[in-house]
Amino acid sequence: MPSRFKRLLAVTIGLGLFLMPAMVSASNQPQLNQTINAGTLSTDIYQSDDTTPVASPSVAFGAKNVGFTCQTSTSTLGDANNKLNVTNLDTGNSHSGWTLTMAPAATTASWTSGSNHYDFNDGSASCGADGADADSYGGQLTVNASTGATLTQDCNGGSCTGSGASKGSDNQKFVEGTADSATLMTDSNYTPWEGYLTGVGLSQTIPSSQTNGSYSLTMVITVTAN
Amino acid sequence: MKRRGLLLLALLVILFASVSPEVFAAENGNVGGTPANPNPSNPRTQSIFVYEIKPGQQVSDGVKIINNSDKQQTVTVLAVDSVLSGGGAFACRQAADPKKDVGSWISLDTNTITLDPDSSQVIPFTVTVPDSKSVDVGEHDGCITIQAASQTAKPSNKNGILLSFRSAIRVAITIPGKIVKSLSLTSVDVKSTEDGKYVVSPVALNDGNVSLDTNIQVAIQSLVGSTIATYKEGSSPVLPHAKASWNYEVKRPFWGGLYRAQVTASYNSDTKAELGIDTNPKEVSVKLTSGLFFVAPSTVGGLIELAVLAVLLIIVTYALRRYRSAKQVKRHWATVTVGASDTIQSLAKSHHISWKRIARVNKLKPPYHIEPGTKLKLPSKKS
Q1: Which of A172, B142, B196, B298 is a plausible cystine mate for A182, CB 3.0–4.6 Å?
Q2: Domain tally for chain A?
Q3: What number of other Cβ atoms are within 10 A of residue A155's Cβ?
Q4: What is the mean pLDDT of residues A192-197?
Q5: B123 and B247 share a domain?
Q6: Residue B311 belongs to what H/E stretch?
Q7: Are B161 and A59 in contact (CB < 8 Å)?
C-alpha cells in the first residue's frame, strides 16, 4: 500500500473518529426527534403483568339459594390477576389531586336478571326490605375499601415522587340520593403516581324470596382530577 | 480490494457518526385528557378547569383528549354534574343521571371522537351560566368525563358486577358575589386495624360557599403532650356545604401507651383568592384533639417493658422487706451482751431465728466469730 494512501486513510479515519462526538452533538440537537406525549390520568384493571388490561372485567358474587330470609352475598374487587390500576403520569402539570370512585351506571339502576330486579342503593334499615326510594326493590351494596384492601405503589422505574395514595373507608353503603358513589382511593400529593388496589370488600344484601336468576349490575370506576 | 475495503470502513465510520439516532415516542398511560388552554397565572388550571363567570355570561374553552395507547380509540366525552363520594371525596355523576347544575351548563362541540394511537384532539366547549335568579353565589362543580369504548362494559349474561372505566376532569365555576370561606373540624375518630396499625379519621365541615383546598396534619401526642409522630398529605378539596373525612394510618408506637391525636386543618381564607392560586395566602388553622386512646406496645417493646417491670418489682419487694425487717428490729429487738459460751448458732437457736439474720442485722462478717462481751441486737426469746 503506497504511503500516501496510508496517510490519507489514517487522516480520514482519524477525522471521522474526532468528529463523531461533535457531529452527534451538533447534528442531533436541532434535529432531536423525541416525542414525549402529554401524560394523562387514567384507570383500568390489569392482569398480573401490570400491563395487559383484563377483557370485559367483572366481579362475581357467590351463588345463593332462594331463601325465606334476607341474605348477604360477598365478593372482592381486585386480586393478583385483576389489579385496579391508577396511573397519574401528568408529569408536566400535576397540579391537582385525584379520587378513584365507584358508582353504578345510574342511580336508578338495579341488579337485573331478565325482568327480575333487586336494589343496590336502598337505605331501608331492615335487611333487604324496600325503603323510601323511587323503585320498589330492596337490597343494598356496601363497599369496604380499607380493611382487607391492599394498596400497592408500583412506579415502574421510579416515576412516583409523592408519598402515595390513600385507601377509602369501610362501610360505604349506597343510598339513593344521599350516597351515590363510593371512594376507593384518593391522592392529594399533586405528584406523579402509579399503583393498584386489590382486596376491596363488597357486600350485597338480597331480599327474602328473591326470584332465582343470574343477576348483574354495571358499575363505573372513575378517576377524577380534582 | 484491500484499499477499497479500508476506504469503505472509513466512510462507514463517518456515516455512523453523522446519522442522528431516532428516538421513538414515549408512551404514557391510556386515554385521558387535560384542559386545552390553561391559565398561565393559575397552575391548577393545567389539571382542572377553573372559571369565575357571572350569571348569564358564557366562556369558551377546550378539552384536549389524549390517546397514549398503541391502538385507535373511540372516545366518548360528556359533561356531567359532580357528586360527593364516600368520605366527602369529589366524584362525577353518571351520564344517565339527570343534569341539574354544571353538567347542564357545558355544551361540547362533539361527544364522540376517534383518535389514532399516540394522538390527541381538542374538543371545544362553551360554559353558559344561567341568569342570577336560578343560580346561587359561590362555587358550582361538575366534570368532563372521558371514556374509551374499549373500557365500556358490554351487555353480558355474567353474574355479578360488570365494570366500566373512565377518567374525568373537575370543572369548578365560581359565581361572584359574597364569598364565604369557613371550615371547622367536627370529630376525630381513632380505630385499630387488624394489622396492628391505627387509623385516625378527622372529619371537617365546610360551611362556606366555595371549596377549600385543605391541608390536614395529624400529630400523635403522648400523655404529657410531646409529639411522637406527625402525618400529613397534600392539599385536598373540601367541597362547599359538605363534610370530608380522611384516614391516616398511624404506626403503632414502639412503647405503646396512652396517646391523643391532634388534628390541624389549614386553608386559605382569602375570599378573593381563586381556586389554585396561593399568592399572599391568609392561612387559617383550626385544631381538634381526639380523646385518649390506648395503644398496645410492639412485641419487642412489650417484652422489654415486661423485663423492666419484673426488675422493678424485685427491687421494690426487696426494699420493702428490708424496711419491714428494720422496723421489726427497732420495735422488738433488744441489745444483749454475748456470754462466754455463746456462739452465733447457739444464740440463733435460743432466740428462734436464723443465724444469718443475726449476722445481717448486726453486720457480722465471716467467719461470724463473736467475742464474749460483744453487744448484739437480738429478738426477745418469747417472740
Answers
A1: A172
A2: 1
A3: 16
A4: 88
A5: no
A6: helix B299-332
A7: yes
Is the predicted ipTM greater than 0.85, yes or no? no
pLDDT (average), residues B215-236 = 90
* Residues of chain B contacting residue A20, judged by C-beta atoms under 8 Å apart: 13, 16-17
Residue-level pLDDT at B382: 58
Q: B289 and B193 share a domain?
A: yes
Same domain, B26 and B161: yes
Range of the domain at A184: 38-225
pTM over 0.80: no
Report the CATH number that the domain containing residue B342 is assigned in CATH. Answer: 3.10.350.10
* CATH number for position B9: 2.60.40.10
For B169, name the nearest residue in chain A, comparing CA atoms only.
A225
Q: What is the pLDDT of residues B110-141, one digit of tens each?
A: 999 999 999 999 999 999 999 978 899 999 99
Q: How far is it between the farthest Cα atoms of chain B?
A: 131
- Chain A CB contacts of B4 under 8 Å are none
One domain, residues B244 and B304: no
Q: Which domain holds residue B67?
A: 2-175
Residues in chain B within 8 Å Cβ distance of A35: 24-26, 118
Nearest chain B alpha carbon to A223 = B167
Q: Are strands A41-46 and B138-148 parallel, antiparallel or unpaired?
A: unpaired
Residues A157-182 have a mean pLDDT of 83
Handedness of CA B341, B343, B346, B350 (dihedral sign): positive
Task: Judge contact between B266 and B284, C-beta under 8 A.
Answer: yes
Could you give the CA distance from residue B93 to residue B91 in angstroms, rounded to a whole number?
7
> How are beta strands B49-52 and B160-175 bridged, if at all?
parallel
> Distance from A133 to chain B by nearest Cα, in Å?
15
Short-list B125, B140, B129, CA closest to B65: B125
Q: Identify whether residues B190 and B277 lie together within a single domain.
A: yes
Question: B154 vs A56: CB contact, 8 Å cut-off?
Answer: yes
Shared domain for B321 and B281, answered yes or no, is: no
Cβ contacts (< 8 Å) between A31 and chain B: which residues? 20
- Any idea what the Cα angle at residue B29 is, between residues A38 and B215, rounded to 5°? 75
